[in-house]
């Protein structure tokens, strides 16, 4: 209900106006006997419309309007005056006064004036509600799109038009320097994922990726006004403040800063490595503070290991993988390498295997030696135990073949292409990690999932264009695009014609 405040120093004038308004209009009406009281009442009543007498003791009507207009710019005002031509007209117009009524006026004139201003209020409220609904829809879509942008940037599955448009829509400027933080969340705290996204979003300088097992990647854009370490530590502490007192396992790895956008993947790898020793008192670790690794994680040997482990795990060849680890252990022993140093070497290999499994969507504990071994026999037993745990987790997870799974995912996308789909949503439906779903598409179909989703949407758009009654805006929304301009850019990228031009050329003779 529209709220109205009547301000006049004469009780009879206030009561008379209220009776007239209530008789003809449905309003929530309150009264104030002077400008000072009106200002105080507006702080809690917040009227949509104020009938303001000009001549009152103390603060005049125009002075009260001037103060109220500064605090409540959307409030409308109707002046009440005894003069048909009054010298305050120009000042009143500057203050945003919408109309005036004379003392005395006919009932019909009062109602006509009131209805004119009330119609403006109704129209503005309707527009505001529509804007709120639109913003809410866009915000929900952005939350979905944000995870996709992170996945595409970190795992090199980039769809150019999609990425550029989403970056614009996310409204967080990509600064020159950027780095990645990788959050580990314990199993019993996964419900905190939404709260983590909210914390990052409030900083205005980061994008949160999809949860991948226990890992949540976060791309952070450098703030020029503070140091890298201060910015990273501040954000880390804000995220870690979500941790409950009895929860263990929260940890954040922080990669180095890089300028080119294509180097962000390197910062991500560093952030992963920085989570290796997550059982330490301080719950965040900078990659740059870590001791030198035995494996060179950016040499061909690391990439070769990663690819080899991935292929063996994809084909479920655990015997070969376990033999690989055994061979390395035997080699170190033949070289009379210190057993403690060998334990560190093997810890890095086990960590790499667990990371590959995690990328595949396997829920696996990060391997940590429970003790410092005192000989190679104990080292083999401890290593074998952790490999068996990972093998069990993998086999439990691996119930469907990749071929069957990709067909299920394709079918799901086709059926739900008009919805706000993301890797996160699709991966939950498939029971896989977002990264693994993306890899499956690239390997099995030669395209990323965004390309497949875009093709589904655009094919449906072309069919809908046959209906001449449908506008392009309606078609864009019906196929899953909230922004018609974005739909137009995607369509033009695919067919080298705008949607309107394509419709004219193809369906209109």
Verbal overview:
The protein has 509 residues and is α/β, with parallel strands linked by helices. It has 4 domains: 3-105, Rossmann fold, CATH 3.40.50; 172-289, 2-Layer Sandwich (Alpha-Beta Plaits), CATH 3.30.70; 300-397; 403-507, Arc Repressor Mutant, subunit A. The chain is 57% helix and 10% strand. It has 20 helices and 10 strands. Strands 2-1-3-4-5 form a 5-stranded parallel beta sheet, sandwiched between helices. β3, α3 (61-71) and β4 (76-81) form a beta-alpha-beta unit. The relative contact order is 0.07.
Portion in helices = 55-70%
How are strands sequenced across the largest beta sheet?
2-1-3-4-5
Major sheet details: 5 strands, parallel
Molecular shape: elongated
Radius of gyration: 33 Å
Per CATH, the class of the largest domain reads Alpha Beta
Please tally the helical runs, counting DSSP H or I stretches of 4 or more residues: 20
Low-confidence stretches: 157-161
CATH architecture of the largest domain: 2-Layer Sandwich
- Terminal CA distance: 52 Å
CATH fold-level name of the largest domain: Alpha-Beta Plaits
Q: What is the percentage of strand-forming residues?
A: 5-15%
Q: What is the number of E strands?
A: 10
Order of helices and strands: EHEHEHEHEHHEHEEHEHEHHHHHHHHHHH
How many structural domains in the coordinates?
4
Structural class by SSE content? alpha/beta
What's this model, at a glance?
By secondary structure, the chain is α/β, with parallel strands linked by helices.
List the helices and strands and how they pair.
Blueprint: E1 3-7, H1 11-24, E2 28-32, H2 35-45, E3 49-53, H3 61-71, E4 76-81, H4 89-94, E5 99-102, H5 107-155, H6 160-170, E6 178-184, H7 193-203, E7 206-208, E8 215-221, H8 228-240, E9 251-254, H9 264-273, E10 284-286, H10 300-314, H11 318-334, H12 339-359, H13 376-397, H14 402-416, H15 423-430, H16 434-444, H17 449-464, H18 472-479, H19 484-495, H20 499-507
Parallel strand pairs: 1-2, 1-3, 3-4, 4-5, 9-10
Antiparallel strand pairs: 6-8, 6-9, 7-8
Helix pairs in contact: 2-3, 5-6, 10-12, 11-12, 11-13, 12-13, 14-16, 15-16, 17-18
Domain Response regulatory: 3-118
Protein name: Response regulator
Organism: Jeotgalibacillus salarius
């Amino acid at each position: 209900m529209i709220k109205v405040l009547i301000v006049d120093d004469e009780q009879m004038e206030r009561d008379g106006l209220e009776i007239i308004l209530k008789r003809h209009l449905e309003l929530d009406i309150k009264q104030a006997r002077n400008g000072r009281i009106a200002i105080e009442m507006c702080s809690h009543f917040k009227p949509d419309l104020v009938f303001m007498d000009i001549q009152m003791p103390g603060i005049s009507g125009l002075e009260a309007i001037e103060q109220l207009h500064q605090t409540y710019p959307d409030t409308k005002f109707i002046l009440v005056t005894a003069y048909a031509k009054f010298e305050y007209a120009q000042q009143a117009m500057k203050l945003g006064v919408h109309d005036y009524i004379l003392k005395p006026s006919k009932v019909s004139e009062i109602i006509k004036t009131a209805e004119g201003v009330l119609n403006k209020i109704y129209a503005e409220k309707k527009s505001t509600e529509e804007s709120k609904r639109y913003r809410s829809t866009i915000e929900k879509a952005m939350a979905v799109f944000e995870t996709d942008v992170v996945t595409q940037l970190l795992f090199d599955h980039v769809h150019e038009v999609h990425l550029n448009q989403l970056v614009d829509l996310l409204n967080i400027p990509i600064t020159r320097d950027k780095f990645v933080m990788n959050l580990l969340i314990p199993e019993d705290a996964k419900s905190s994922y939404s709260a983590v996204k909210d914390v990052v979003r409030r900083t205005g300088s980061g994008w949160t990726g999809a949860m991948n097992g226990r890992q949540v990647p976060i791309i952070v854009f450098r703030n020029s006004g503070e140091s890298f370490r201060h910015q990273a530590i501040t954000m880390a502490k804000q995220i870690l403040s979500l941790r409950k007192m009895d929860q263990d396992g929260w940890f954040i790895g922080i990669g180095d800063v890089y300028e080119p956008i294509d180097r962000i993947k390197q910062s991500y790898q560093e952030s992963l490595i920085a989570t290796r020793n997550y059982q330490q008192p301080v719950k965040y670790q900078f990659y740059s503070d870590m001791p030198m690794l035995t494996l060179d994680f950016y040499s061909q040997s690391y990439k070769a290991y990663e690819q080899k482990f991935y292929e063996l795990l994809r084909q479920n060849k655990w015997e070969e993988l376990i033999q690989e680890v055994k061979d390395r252990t035997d080699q170190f022993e033949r070289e009379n390498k210190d057993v403690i140093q060998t334990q560190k070497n093997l810890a890095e290999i086990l960590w790499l295997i667990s990371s590959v499994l995690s990328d595949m969507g396997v829920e696996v504990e990060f391997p940590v030696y429970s003790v410092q071994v005192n000989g190679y026999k104990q080292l083999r037993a401890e290593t074998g135990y952790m490999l068996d745990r990972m093998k069990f987790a993998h086999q439990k997870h691996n119930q469907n073949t990749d071929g069957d799974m990709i067909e299920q995912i394709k079918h799901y996308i086709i059926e739900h292409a008009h919805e706000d789909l993301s890797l996160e949503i699709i991966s939950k439906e498939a029971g896989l990690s977002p990264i693994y779903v993306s890899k499956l598409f690239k390997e099995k179909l030669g395209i990323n999932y965004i390309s497949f989703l875009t093709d589904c949407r655009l094919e449906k758009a072309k069919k809908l264009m046959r209906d001449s009654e449908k506008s392009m805006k309606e078609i864009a929304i019906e196929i899953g695009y909230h922004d018609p301009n974005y739909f137009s850019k995607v369509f033009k990228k695919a067919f080298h014609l705008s949607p309107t031009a394509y419709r004219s050329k193809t369906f209109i003779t």
